[in-house]
Specification:
By secondary structure, the chain is of the alpha+beta class. It contains 7 helices and 13 strands.
């Protein structure tokens, strides 16, 4: 990889700004000062330092966010704040994106990465990746609803969903449930309940594939995935 591209990717500025660092003799490769921005280097085998600090090269980032309501699952938007806007610039420069989407008013687990292969594996309909949600429902959720969801629900546009696994936590005028679906149709959970005459008043994603929401994360907070979580994702492929 070209030295200027490596340094730009690692957040040391634009290619032009990186050239200024090189002119200032701020960059060394294996202990030797380097001025040639086009020099090819191997960050995994060579010791590359900027201002005396060794670079730990990272190609991909994997972040778990507890998405807050009111923020959209997109990389940019003209009107609304996006989940990427919530990230520190040190992560933004990797040009990450949310894996799938949560509705604007939905909160909970959102994976953010720049690893396109991983995102494809998690989003591919062929993979049948389970996603669990916790929801509050306006209306009494019954055993009959469990049976209907298990057969697949016909939505308002005539589409019949894949079978969903519905668990009732509280059955009352204000019910509480957990629901597992394997798709991500627009407003799917809300529309599934509308199809049985009920309304979702609160929705939170609690898991996606092998990933579980970290309950220590406050709304809007995020952290890098642990080695164990990355191993679970790799095994899930």
């Amino acid at each position: 990889m070209r030295l200027d591209k490596l340094l730009a990717n690692m957040g040391y500025g634009s290619r032009k700004e990186v050239k200024q660092l090189l002119k200032q003799k701020a960059v060394t490769v294996d202990g030797m000062t380097v001025k040639d921005s086009a020099m090819h280097v191997d960050p995994e085998k060579q010791n590359i330092s900027v201002l005396g600090e060794r670079i730990e090269y990272v190609e991909f980032i994997y972040l778990m966010m507890n998405k807050p309501p009111g923020v959209i699952s997109a990389t940019e938007d003209r009107y609304d704040q996006t989940v990427i806007d919530l990230l520190d610039p040190s992560f933004q420069h990797f040009e990450p994106f949310p894996v799938g989407r949560l509705d604007k008013d939905t909160e909970g687990l959102l994976l953010i990465t720049n690893d396109g292969k991983l995102a494809h594996n998690l989003l591919s309909p062929k993979k049948h990746v389970p996603k669990w949600y916790y929801a509050k429902i306006d209306g009494v959720v019954t055993e009959h609803d469990i049976e209907v969801f298990a057969q697949g629900v016909t939505l308002d546009d005539g589409y019949k969903t894949k079978p969903g696994q519905l668990k009732i936590l509280v059955s009352d005028e204000q019910s509480e449930i957990e629901l597992m679906i394997q798709e991500g149709k627009f407003h799917q959970v809300k529309r599934m309940f509308e199809a049985v005459g009920k309304k979702v008043t609160y929705l939170k994603r609690i898991s996606m594939g092998p990933l579980q929401i970290d309950e220590q994360l406050a709304l809007g907070e995020y952290r890098e995935l642990t080695e164990q979580e990355l191993a679970l994702l790799a095994a899930h492929e």
